[in-house]
Amino acid sequence: MSWHPSIPASWRPSLTELECPLPASRQVFKCEDLMEDFNYTPSIIEPKWQQRWADENAFRTPSDPEELRSKPKYYVLDMFPYPSGAGLHVGHPEGYTATDVIARMKRMQGFNVLHPMGWDAFGLPGERAAVREGKHPAEIMTRNIDNFRGQIQRLGFSYDWEREVNTSSVDYYRWTQWIFLKLYEKDLAYMADEPVNWCPALGTVLANEEVKDGKYVETGDVVERRMMRQWMLKITLYAQRLLDDLDDLDWPESVKEMQRNWIGRSRGAGVTFAIDGHEQDFTVFTTRPDTLFGATYCVLAPEHPLVAKITTDEQREAVENYIAEATNKSDLDRTDLAKTKSGVFSGAFALNPVNGQRIPIWVADYVLMSYGTGAIMAVPGHDERDHEFARAFDLPIIEVVSGGSKPIEEEAFTDCNDGVLVNSSGDQGLDLNGLKVPEAVNATIAWLGDKELGEEKIQYRLRDWLFSRQRYWGEPFPIVHTDDGEVVPLPEEALPIALPAIDQYRPTEDGRPPLARAGDDWLRVTLPDGRTGTRETNTMPQWAGSCWYYLRYLDPTNELEPWSEEAENYWMPVDLYVGGVEHAVLHLLYVRFWHKVLFDCGLVHTKEPFQKLFNQGMILAYSYRDEGGKYYHPDEVEENDGGHVTRQTGIPVNTQIEKMSKSKLNVVNPDDVINAYGADAMRLYELFMGPLEVQKPWQMKGVEGVNRFLHRVWRLVVDSKTGELNTRITNDPADSNDPLNRVLHKTIKKVVSDTETLQMNTAIAQMMIFVNEATTAETLPREILSAFLRLLGPYAPHLCEELWSRLNGEGLLAHASWPTHDEALCQDDLITIVLQVNGKRRDEIQVPKDTAKEDLERLTLDSDKIRKYMEGKEPRRVIVVPGRLVNVVV
RNA sequence: GCCGGAGUGGCGGAAUGGUAGACGCCAAGGACUUAAAAUCCUUUAUCCGUAUGGGUGUGCGGGUUCGAUUCCCGCCUCCGGCACCA
């Protein structure tokens, strides 16, 4: 184990602590082994209070109907982790600490609080670890979960562990299968031959959302296109609702915007083009129907079914070669923007519906089969891509919207607000000349409708969700393929379909998914109607389990239904959902889709699952790298004349702030921090670092700062020489003239409002101000300390429970009532008024808080300094801001 | 390229139209100590000045206002997302 150089040796844990294999909550400390003193010792009090909370079941969520009715509810949820082998990093507890503070405060404020934790335990990494270690994925996950749970429990979070869920347990995934049956019943799940993202390295297909730049986003493995028969979910049917309902959510604007972009709604028109000399026609989608007079050619995607039919004999060879070339290209090549446009003429001509003009039909891979109709009308004058293509192949460019800054041959004019239509009338009766673009769009759509040549069309970028994977470690589908060729859902009574034991987790030699290895005992099924068939061998993607876990927490042990109606009615929606921004699109879009389906089934009563969403920012760390790019562990580096050098060899190293990673040697392990400073310091620092939502670097020195603060809090209550209560503590009631009492009430006010809005860094700063004040106060009324401990309790629960019990005796602080502030005590009697001349601060005066405006004005003009700066001039205007300042304008 | 977000001391950050730099870190000085750690106290944006004091200062340039870190316009830089989506 290595230590950050800033951790003093005296704070590093003893060997016995480190070697103890049990989680901290189970560790037994022998007091006589430890130095006899009365200082704050987190290693003793933290396990002690964790044990007390567990013994008393302090954070059990009420489920008795009577108890539920008696109080309002608050559901605060963390994005549950994927329990990886690497264990917790300091980024996890950041969000967990914030939600725990909220949960503890709400509980003390008299809410019934649901604050659960669980595990997103299906998925690829577990399966790969299983292959690597020759163990069952369930065994790997159990081990990882135990590790995660132990680490999380050391931080003293107030989760109700009786409600823990695990997506890979049969009790859980039987209901994931059950929800799939609902999707199937509603005709939202279907099998289709689709061009899918096949990842050869992983041996599975991936959803569109999991692929970026032709690579799997998680591993960077290259993905290729393949036609395969796969399960799809009709998320596109919900596109508009997924878009509309974003408006009412209290979510970060950036996340809403990312979802809107992903759904990608465009309004435009479908326009039908006849093909010269053919019976058939084709439809294009365009957002700019106003530019129809500028269409000088059309383009079909290479995969478009019409290509083979319309290609002329002269062009056939060239077209076939081009298609073969395009098909072989990876998505990475096809979407590479740097490459020049390619394409080939099909030999056929389309007829422009607005003027009957013959325009050539080209085949080019810059048109994608997967968007719109796979065919476009090309308007090189007003679309950059068409412009580039027209220039490359010498096709005509016509200006139909005037207003561009350069000649149309040089640059496409794409602005669609101020341009005015020109060259846009034809013998078919449409005349757009003189109209602005938006008017022209509407006029064209209306005209196309009249002539039955087209209509308004809303197009979404969102595509149906590819929902099957060729993996072992996922939910089996409750589906049978009968021998007579039908796809049949199994009845509810057949659930759960448990994963069979198999000997290897690879696909079979002939390329079928791993479940095909299960053997006929599992694979072959006789249906109630007597027909026989084979089970579906694909499994569901990892996203499935996380699409409804927040509902299972409501009623986690229900064996008859996924959740009860009463529980759903009481607890939903989730009041606060906290997690990383990396889930802004995938997880959050999928969950919202499932929730809406469940809503349509009458199984949930809210349109949206998560009323308020908060993304915590990533925690970064300093890393040290020499000229040659070699990284050094912070332990090996020391400061030198403002720079950093290696401790041993004195090589200068550059300091940078980066994402934590093993290869950069800058990972901070939460266990090390807890061992050195305790869980309360860890919790407090995670929140004190800065605003919760921003990226910020971990600085071990900052932990020392909050650690010092906690020691000061301890000494307010405990005399560290005797172990008795601080002799300054009195039983006198809090006096309204006591300045400390005023600071307390200001602190209560600020802690409440800042905690509600998750501005916990400033809440902690205010509590530090209180402690600074209390440290120098002559007397410490018990009543004031008691209120302060309740404020700090949600942030540093172990320390505060200990001090609470010493100060007040019986009863848990976690169950104490929340203090309220007296507004009158938050206002100072004497306030400072700043005096300005022409907006510059020149003097200040102390006045009673309710001094009248006129008096303030008079006092200002009487001030020597102010008179000096007025230079004998008459005041032109005097602005008085009550309680703040007076500004004299001369 | 498009869409979001951000730019404040040596560092993390505070202030959302009204005293810029709360709180913490670092640093310096002092008290306590045989000594060190811990603790406590003081100083700590910057420039001129011994000082009273004064000037400058929230990425850059402009604007609105009695008053702008905060609002508006233009630019620069960084971070995140999307990207041949017709």
For the structure shown, list the relevant keywords.
890 residues; alpha+beta; Isoleucyl-tRNA Synthetase, domain 2; Ubiquitin-like (UB roll); six-stranded mixed β-sheet; 29 helices; globular; disordered N terminus; RNA-binding
Describe the protein's architecture and organization.
It is a single chain. The protein is of the alpha+beta class and 890 residues long. Among the domains are: 196 residues, Valyl/Leucyl/Isoleucyl-tRNA synthetase, editing domain (Isoleucyl-tRNA Synthetase, domain 2), CATH 3.90.740; 48 residues, no CATH class; 62 residues, Roll (Ubiquitin-like (UB roll)), CATH 3.10.20.590. It is built from 29 helices and 37 strands. Strands 10, 11, 12, 13, 14, 15 and 18 form a seven-stranded mixed beta sheet that branches. α4 crosses α21 and α21 crosses α22. The longest helix has 18 residues. The chain is globular. The N terminus is likely disordered. The structure holds one RNA strand of 86 nucleotides.
Set down the secondary structure blueprint:
Blueprint lengths: L14 H5 L22 H14 L9 H5 L3 E6 L12 H18 L3 E3 L3 E2 L4 H10 L3 H18 L10 E2 L3 H16 L3 E11 L4 E3 L4 E2 L2 E2 L7 E10 L5 H6 L8 H11 L1 E11 L5 E6 L10 E4 L5 H5 L2 H16 L2 H4 L9 E8 L6 E6 L11 E4 L5 H10 L7 E2 L17 E2 L15 H14 L3 E7 L4 E2 L12 E4 L4 E3 L30 H4 E3 L5 E4 L7 H4 L2 H4 L12 H7 L4 E5 L5 H15 L12 E4 L2 E7 L5 E2 L4 E4 L2 E4 L5 E8 L10 H8 L1 H10 L7 E3 L1 H18 L11 E2 L8 H18 L3 H17 L3 E2 H11 L4 H12 L14 H4 L3 E8 L2 E9 L4 H10 L1 H7 L6 E5 L3 E5 L1
Parallel strand pairs: 1-2, 1-24, 3-4, 12-14, 24-25, 26-31, 32-33, 34-37
Antiparallel strand pairs: 5-6, 5-9, 7-8, 9-19, 10-11, 10-13, 10-18, 12-15, 13-14, 16-17, 20-21, 20-23, 22-23, 26-27, 26-30, 28-29, 29-30, 34-35, 36-37
Helix pairs in contact: 2-26, 4-21, 5-6, 20-21, 21-22, 22-24, 23-24, 23-25, 25-26
The protein binds one RNA strand of 86 nucleotides through helix 9, strand 11, strand 15, helix 13 and helix 22.
